[in-house]
Design goal:
Elements lengths: L3 E7 L6 E4 L4 H6 L3 E8 L14
Antiparallel strand pairs: 1-2, 1-3
Length: 55
């Protein structure tokens, strides 16, 4: 099981939440998100995070 540092990000203007790894923090900061919390584990896979290559 992977033990990655996961950042839970929130955009306080519209209430949107996302999870990302440290690699993508600058992009979410640029979109107005702030770190809400940090957890360790795996990114949760959602329908919107899939590659979309299923037929």
């Amino acid at each position: 099981m992977e033990n990655t540092k996961i950042y839970v990000m929130v955009n306080k203007e519209n209430g949107a939440k996302v999870e990302c790894t440290e690699k993508f923090l600058p992009e979410w900061f640029a979109r107005g998100f702030e770190v809400d919390s940090i957890r360790f584990g795996e990114l949760l896979e959602t329908e919107s995070s899939q590659d979309g290559d299923k037929e």
